[in-house]
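Translate sequence into structure tokens.
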Amino acid sequence: MNRGFVCRYRAFICFRLLSAVFLAISACQSGAEQRFELLDPQATGIDFVNQLNPTPQLNIFTYLYYYDGGGVAAGDLNRDGLPDLYFTSNEGRNRLYINRGNLRFEDVTDRAFEAQPDFWSTGVVLVDINGDSLLDIYVSNVGGYPPFAGHNQLFINQGSDRQGIPRFEERAAAYGLDLVGLSTQGCMRSGRLRIRRSAGSTMRWQAIASSGTRTAGSRRSPIRPASTAPPLAKG
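Result follows.
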């Protein structure tokens, strides 16, 4: 191919790209209505950071999903009408922030949960799994893949104290939901709890249990612990 043509073609492409960048910057600096505002962590009380510290033993080369991140779920955990936030961390501790109103949050992790191991958490879903009108927390963790030794966790909401702080008990084993594997995220769909898990080089959704979630107009029976109910249906 003619070398001069190639040079002119590259110059043309660079000019078009620079023009597009200039137009984008101009649009951002125009008088368009601002839809979002960045708030300072000191103002909101949310100082969560999913900090990663790669080592020779654990990094992107030894674990393909090292930089996939964690997850966050929003829901009214203490029934005060305000959405609370639960953040999952890879190498650190998961955190629960209660909404105190006016975009102010309080970290109540130490008071809401008993001492728990710090697994490599990848996702979280809020669901009233036992039908008591209180949102529970289902956390996806990595396990069964060295050096990870975690399992999925189910935190059952025990109600809130006078300060509006909900208390939780970990009951995944009792409900048959303490899955071990490369779980990524859970969700509720078509009346089933579904978990996104790795299957070789692909990620697939797996329906693992019938759901007792109560929604508007729903008459589903709640899921009970395995010791008091028939085995959960497998999907």
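Note: Confidence is low (pLDDT under 50) at residues 198-221, 226-235.
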